[in-house]
Amino acid sequence: MGLCDNSLIKYKALEVIRMEKKPKIVVLGAGYSGMMTVIGLQKQLQYNEAEVILVNQHTYHYLTTKLHEPAAGTRHHEAARVLIEDVIDPRKITFIQDKVKGIRPKERAVDLVNREEPLTYDYLVIGLGSAPETFGIRGLKENAFFIRNIDSVRMIREHIEYMFAKYRNEEQRDEYITIVVGGAGFTGVEFVGELVDRMPRLCREFDIPREKVRLISIEAAPTVLPGFDPELVQYAVEYLEKQGVEFRINTPIEQCDEDGVILKGGEEIKAATVVWTGGVRGNHLIEEAGFETMRGRVKVDEYLRAPGYEDVFVVGDCSLVFNDEGRPYPPTAQIASQQGSKVAKNLIALIRGGKMQPFRFDLKGTLASLGRHNAIGIIGKRKVFGSTASFLKWANDLRWLYTLGGVPLVLRKGFI
Amino acid sequence: MGLCDNSLIKYKALEVIRMEKKPKIVVLGAGYSGMMTVIGLQKQLQYNEAEVILVNQHTYHYLTTKLHEPAAGTRHHEAARVLIEDVIDPRKITFIQDKVKGIRPKERAVDLVNREEPLTYDYLVIGLGSAPETFGIRGLKENAFFIRNIDSVRMIREHIEYMFAKYRNEEQRDEYITIVVGGAGFTGVEFVGELVDRMPRLCREFDIPREKVRLISIEAAPTVLPGFDPELVQYAVEYLEKQGVEFRINTPIEQCDEDGVILKGGEEIKAATVVWTGGVRGNHLIEEAGFETMRGRVKVDEYLRAPGYEDVFVVGDCSLVFNDEGRPYPPTAQIASQQGSKVAKNLIALIRGGKMQPFRFDLKGTLASLGRHNAIGIIGKRKVFGSTASFLKWANDLRWLYTLGGVPLVLRKGFI
Lengths: 416, 416
Prior knowledge:
2 copies of one chain form a homodimer.
Chain A: H1 2-21, E1 24-28, H2 32-44, E2 51-56, E3 60-62, H3 68-72, E4 81-83, E5 93-97, E6 100-104, E7 109-112, E8 119-120, E9 123-126, E10 130-132, H4 140-143, E11 145-146, H5 150-169, E12 178-182, H6 186-205, E13 214-218, H7 230-242, E14 245-248, E15 253-257, E16 260-263, E17 268-270, E18 273-276, E19 280-282, H8 284-288, E20 293-294, E21 297-299, E22 312-314, E23 319-320, H9 333-351, E24 365-369, E25 375-379, E26 382-385, H10 386-413
Parallel strand pairs in A: 1-2, 1-9, 2-5, 9-22, 11-18, 12-13, 12-18, 13-14, 21-23
Antiparallel strand pairs in A: 3-4, 6-7, 7-8, 10-19, 15-16, 16-17, 20-21, 24-25, 25-26
Helix pairs in contact in A: 2-9
């Protein structure tokens, strides 16, 4: 009994030591980067090797690259979200549904909205995503809609339908069925492409002739999809124009109000629906935490850490990574998931006393959908168009679902 | 050749005489009464016996008795409408899609919005339906929705969904997901019954817990379904209360504004959606035409003619028919279709030199649905509840579709 007691005490003591020493990793945000971090840790960590906590405002991860579909109403938003509990292993990852109120990196603490006690950590991974960047355009924040999350795109879908219903039920004012999309970057063009697909059915639903509806894409830069391959841009513009989209390039929006937008020069476009896709900036919590930022983003070091903090990793839209020419990579799901994957590996190296590896972005390609059956893109050095590009885009979405939850998730979400 | 010419001239002359003498019947409105008139004429008239013109604002007839379903969003509005061209024989009935601007019975002329020349007639059938009666309640007309036609119920459906989206995307204000139904007569109760059916799916769609949503039925009279069998009323109230409906009887609404309703006594209920089902009155065109009216309705003679006019029949919600105790029958689809049927017969009698028959309403029964799988009603002298009543209500809708367009229409519209 003495022996037995003794060994039990020893065992317990060891367990306490082990528990005390178990590093605590807190991941903020279940976007592409946060999920990839957590999935990476979950796959490679042994039980009890670390305590991993994932904090997210919603119970689900959503596929930002697909949000233009539920926003236009061409696909249900269920296809664009995945319940977190469906893809994490609760024995390895603790999920806390809460909203981050503030980050105190000097105290190694995170304050949550619904918890009195702060969350402490040994390692913090910040993947809190982005917020719309309105570039100081008057009234945009108050009057425009944003393709931002499940709630906001459901709102856009409902708003468009509501205005169509209003057009029929009240005075037939043209602005009710005029949709302005501010910004013709990837999100803007993909959203317009979906709208084009949606219109015939939507018009039938509300007994409105299709030719009465106006879809206007407005871009301040001298071209649609600035920076993208000109041949592909031309293909996209020609296709969308044939479907009735009006493009206004070289045309900055000066103001957005309840009636629509006012362009530089004074021209007014009356529109009940204005969706702004013109840009994003990092989450405001990053700045508030005292990190040095550029447009709300942290210029991370080669290991994706915030300058001055060895225990804080910043990933996804909150981070800023530069290419060899010194220009920042645009925030995409592709770079975010690669960052998450790398941070997971480096965290494991840190825990196990190994050596971290620097992050290098490996650009596989770029694809932009133009509705359900058309797309453009570059894979490696090859340009792709039409149904080929459309298929690749679809396959890419499935691949992400597979990464998150294997074949079952692909089957459940990939074919909605 | 002489003979031939001669007979041709005779024939042509006879045709002209026949054409000149062909009486012109104009039917205004394609509701239950108007459609029944036209269908009756179409079935019994020979070609060339009369010129029949049907005027209607929309290209379709809609089933007012089913409008509470698309209003709540439990069934698509296509199930509640029938294209006029699908059920009329264009060789016998000429359909004009236009809106009536005014009726000049002394000049036998009807002015339409999109036609310069007035439409003249030998016989006029007015079935222009009803308008909401707001009993002078302040702000109701401006701020409430009405279960009135396809456009208005599509608007209600979209408005409810829009407010649910707003609740998720903006501040979570309870009034966004509070629905007030003013009036607990047949339409009000049937609408509340549908809302109850809709809520679980709607709440899932917008990630809102069902218990957060309030459905409030407000009635000025001391009981729900005033004048109806008390046992059936109790059944309905108990069922709906169990589904979470709050009833406020004996409670007149004093005012409706952007924030909701103010009840007599001053209590305010904040609600983003207020639907008024408290009553209807005849179409304002009736009063404007100079007919003598009671709450916008014409007290018709025994042949359903407007007093003082032998060539003007008034049917449906525009007409007022009294029972043997001197009380007016409530406006229903049942009485409207019986009136239409009788007017068709009497018009044929007039054309053929026969004798008209007086109208007598034959009340077959009354049924009110409580959602998709429950209902209450009286058939003859028998009370019916639950699935039996629900089945009878369904069968009755099918019967109307059959009357309009036979088996093909039943198959096309009855199972949406």
